[in-house]
Design goal:
45% of the residues lie in helices and 11% in strands. It is of the alpha/beta class. It starts with 8 loop residues before the first helix and ends with a helix. The structure holds coproporphyrinogen III.
């Protein structure tokens, strides 16, 4: 008999219940590490692929078929809802999101209207189709957290120091909070629409939150992440909250309203559990570059992560950040096998 979706190892671990095996999926599992992805994307711009239902479905399925992971992550991007409401932006290959008119004044806030279901109709059609195709494998929907999205909207492009973003935050807190509130409404609605279309869990990516001090995170960012997580609070979907370099923020990121806190590779999971507290599950946290080391090293490091993950009430195995494009796909498949073979008792 096959396991029903609600009892899948991934959803059980998110809820803090004992799973049949430790579940595993990879951030950026759908993407450039796979030759079949690169082939499908030939001649198709990244954002065009995100609004083409058949491509989204196929790209989301590729890593599930190839690696046997325990969850699918929806193929899209954190800037998709911004594109959908008409913000003039592009994802430039090798660079990332680039915004034509960065938002640094109150007048420019007008670019951010509410997201309506019709704006993302082909995206939601892909969620519906995937839920049917995936059967008992959960689909994870996602959105960007307000701080990470603001960092693109204010800088206009990827940044190392978030200079314009932090300058706005500190010099005009009122405009900052209005901007973050607008973004939170859009990201929250994007998350809600995916969950209503059938996604089994959601992840809020606050990838660049680690650039903030704990005090600034609490004042300028956390309330808006809470608003995004709250947007699906009534829908019975576990909520994962992840960022990079967030060792000092883990407790606050959990308090923002997450059921599962994503941890990067910089701190061991048992230490992360002490910072987060016993009532939330954790996700992570193998260093993605370890996959470039010999198999024996990958296995040893994976087992260390699994051992440390036992301290949590639930552990979803993942990398500490996304799969690097140059990663050997076979190394990922072998890693899935190592995680699944790990004895829990
Ligand atoms: O497998 C998956 O994780 C699902 C799809 C996914 C993408 N982006 C596809 C993508 C997800 C979950 C994201 C989230 C995302 N997008 C984040 C948060 C996660 C993280 O990595 O921290 C961020 C910060 C973005 C913004 C963004 N989009 C960046 C920084 C880039 C990389 C630019 C580059 O070319 O190196 C993108 C583009 C992007 N998003 C690609 C993919 C597969 C690569 C574009 C391509 O294949 O042409």
């Amino acid at each position: 008999m096959t396991t029903p979706l609600s009892e899948s190892p991934f959803l059980r671990a998110c809820r803090g219940e004992a799973p049949a095996h430790v579940p595993v999926w990879f951030m950026r599992q759908a993407g450039r590490s796979l030759p079949e992805y690169r082939k499908l994307r030939e001649g198709v711009a990244m954002l065009d692929s995100c609004f083409t239902t058949e491509l989204v479905v196929e790209i989301t399925m590729q890593p599930v078929r190839r690696h046997g992971v325990d969850a699918a992550i929806f193929f899209s991007d954190i800037v998709v809802p911004l594109k959908a409401i008409g913000v003039d932006l592009d994802i430039v290959p090798g660079v990332g999101p680039v915004i034509a008119e960065p938002i640094r004044s109150r007048a420019q806030l007008a670019q951010l209207r509410d997201l309506e279901p019709d704006d993302v109709a082909p995206v939601l059609a892909a969620v519906t189709a995937l839920v049917g195709e995936l059967g008992s494998t959960p689909l994870i929907g996602f959105a960007g957290a307000p701080f990470t999205l603001a960092s693109y909207l204010v800088e206009g492009r990827p940044s190392r120091d978030y200079r314009h973003t932090k300058a706005l935050m500190h010099s005009d807190p009122e405009l900052w909070h209005d901007l973050m509130g607008r973004i939170a409404a859009i990201a929250g609605q994007f998350l809600r629409l995916q969950a209503q279309a059938g996604a089994s869990a959601v992840q809020v990516f606050d990838s660049w939150a680690g650039a903030l001090s704990l005090a600034d995170y609490r004042t300028f960012s956390q309330p808006h992440s809470t608003a995004v997580l709250d947007a699906v609070a009534d829908l019975d979907v576990p909520r994962i909250h992840f960022g990079v370099g967030t060792g000092e923020l883990l407790g606050a990121m959990g308090e923002a309203g997450a059921d599962v806190v994503g941890v990067d590779w910089r701190i061991p999971l048992d230490d992360a559990v002490r910072r987060i507290g016993p009532e939330r599950a954790v996700q992570g946290n193998l260093d993605p570059t370890v996959l470039f080391a010999p198999t024996a090293v990958v296995e040893r490091e994976a087992r260390r992560v699994l051992d440390e993950g036992r301290a949590a009430r639930g552990h979803v195995f993942n990398l500490g950040h996304g799969v690097l494009p140059e990663t050997d796909p076979d190394a990922l498949t072998r890693l899935v096998d190592v995680v699944h073979a790990y004895e829990l008792d």
